[in-house]
Amino acid sequence: MRLLGGMTAGALGLWLAVTATAADYPLDSAEQQLVGSLSSVQAVYEDTFADLGDLHGFGFLEMQAANPGVDPWLPGAGTTIRLPGQHILPDAPRSGIVINLPEYRLYHYPDDGGRVSTWPVGIGREGWSSPIGQTRVARKEANPSWYPPQSIREEHAAAGDPLPAVVPPGPDNPMGPFKMNLAMSGYVIHGTNKSFGIGMRVSHGCFRMNNRDVTELFPQVPVGTSVTIVNQPYKLGVLDGKLYLEVHTPLDEHGFPSSLDKLAAIQELLQARSELVSGYRLDWQKIRDMVFAEEGIPAVIGEPYSSTGAF
Asked: CA distances (Å), 251 to each of 23, 207, 284, in order?
């Protein structure tokens, strides 16, 4: 990791601790649908998407999607790297925790209202899909022990990496410093002892956060907090009178990359959200381009019919 402006290692550590926190956004009204903004950084020779994502609060796959054609392991000195910091809020209740699986992102709406915070998360890998539905935080624990299920112990044993029946708290514990058990048997929001994999399909179905992120979220989430898990690769929102679309790579109900008819899926969404879309002149070429690019960055796809602009 490069030092900035001649910082000492201690100063850099402090700077990282200050900058690498949740993205907190004010919600000026219940109707607000987009938060954040796009930005960019210039890579230096030792940067990787994993490093830049960890530093700026993004997952690996969303960094890769936002920067097509750029080598994620060696972007190259001077390469402009887009940071996908603008988000259309998921179409879900604005209460408690909302996780959108194709986005690899968790949103938190605190009880005091008026803002939303968001962090990248790792989700279930192929064969260990994360669930979809409505649940709640059933239990919380600091410095947890890990009791690996028999299926995971068998998997590790078959790979020549046997696990003990109990992994105590500490740096080797894959639960990290905090965990929040959901009222869905076996599913947990937790930290990790492996920072790589945040924002990817890496877990056995649980939701994995950076340790600093789960440390920030944990005290804000009382037991009983609602948790809504959705599968929304396509999100629509209005900002400044214009209709926006955000596209992520779809996942099927098992967490695999989906083979669905993408244009049919987006047309179905536009019809289902007709109350939002009506009154806008749609740019179908832009929609098609976005659906196949899957860059995860909101862009304008509709202008009001009363607008003098033209697509």
From this structure: 25, 16, 23
